[in-house]
Write a structure and sequence with these properties.
about 150 residues, elongated, about 0% strand
Amino acid sequence: MLLVNIFFNILWNKVRFTNCYFIIEMEVYGLLEERLRELRLKAGLKQQDLLNKFGISSARYSQYETGKRTPDYELLIEIANFYDVSLDYLLGRTDDPTPPQKEKTPSRHEGVLQDLEDLSPDMELEVREFINYLKHKNNLAAAAGGKN
């Protein structure tokens, strides 16, 4: 009888744990379906608009918004990018929809402009003269190349 009680307790704890896990899982997916619907409505879109955008069937997308199905990772990323929200927001891990900001690498021109900010007016004049010299030199080389 003791063995039966131990087995029953183990089985009962497993079922309770499984049910807890199931509830937590459903809450996360419940947020996903709510967020999908909320974002679509906020953007003034119909489900049909998203079907065309993501190339999926209406039944499939409807299952996403009702929680009967979960989008794959690739589609979740596409949806997050489309609405400009983070995956954490879609999945209910945060209430902040702002996607993480990537550090912007300055373009070649932005880098030059940053360098020019620290120049004195005299140095800026010299830079402009040198730029004009380089443009003139480039025009002469293009003209000489065109004669051949």
